[in-house]
Amino acid sequence: MSKPRFNPLYAALAFVALVGLFFVPFDGHGVVSSGSAGSATSKTDAGHVTHVALFEWKTAADPDAVVMAHKRLMALRTKCIHPTRKQPYIVSLKGGRDHSPEGLQHGATHGYVVEFASIEDRDYYVKTDPAHKAFVGGISDIVEKVTVLDFTAGFY
């Protein structure tokens, strides 16, 4: 049997592969670069803000009122109009009733994820948008607690 020979090409490929396992390209702002299909963000998501809202309803809340609140919240996708562009500015909105088996809901029964193209759009939604303000005011009698968390994907 012949002795295996050292091949510099294989050694170089092995080195590059090992370096690739431990190197995550960042764009300088804490965001993982979007060069490959497996990256944490894509160029279309860059700068997008994800707004997560978890709702706990009062125990005395009428189930029909909760359903109506859900429908009104989902309608914000088209009712929230940007003040200067004069068109809907919510990139995406989805939500529904919890069905997690983990038991870590801490009272929340419904969750919603709203995506905005920028922090400015999110800030307008939270602080100023009349449609959002009307929704918030309209649920005060039935909501016990709302937990909100906002993030930009890949920014740690």
TrEMBL record:
Domain spans labelled Stress-response A/B barrel: 49-151
Oligomeric form and interacting partners: Homodimer.
Protein name from the UniProt record: Stress-response A/B barrel domain-containing protein
Organism: Gaeumannomyces tritici (strain R3-111a-1) (Wheat and barley take-all root rot fungus)
Annotated gene: 20354659
